[in-house]
Amino acid sequence: MNKILLVDDDRELTALLKQLLELDGFHVELANDGVEALAKLDDTIDLILLDIMMPNKNGLDALREIRQNYTLPIIMLTARGGELDRVLGLELGADDYLAKPFNDRELLARIRALLRRSAWMDGPFTEPVSSDDVSPVISIDGLVLYPGRQEARFDDKVLDLTGTEFTLLYLLAQNVGLVVSRDDLSMKVLGKPLSPFDRAVDMHVSNLRRKLPERKDGLPWFKTLRSRGYLMVAVG
User: Of 122, 153, 177, which residue sits at a domain end?
Assistant: First the structure.
């Protein structure tokens, strides 16, 4: 049973969401602000639903601290017009966001998609502990991706990527030299159709560009093809 940490100061909403999620088979822990969320966070939590506007410590500050130690999926809950909050949340490492008020089915679909991604990364590609030699890794110009443990290394130094950033990077690396559409990336990485003005995929690519070291061959890691998608550049 997956365990979700639901963080929101709206106690009526959290009570309703807790009931909804538990009826769908999840175990739910509640927190009413960022301070309480950080106190309750541990390795048993599989996913966090994190509101932004809260007393004591808001969602963005809590997210910043969470990402110092955890890579688990995080969905931000934002105000309908909170475009700046959404962008900041994605820059700080949130995996996705939902604007309030949201549809219950959409929330459950987003949760399942991110949890499936985590299970996929830990499932078919799990690497034997005894040997990395038989692991299904991808290596591109000093960058090595280990999908079983969601780990990226450059010159044997581990890169600080979230689970979503790693999944996006891995999918682009699987198709190196080929264009992958934003629609495909949104479905395969975030588990949702791409909607108009949705910047989640673009922000995750931007985060990867910022976090990845300079390539040895001097080429960019990615190219943006307007109206088509993204391409991971092959070794020159």
Answer: 122
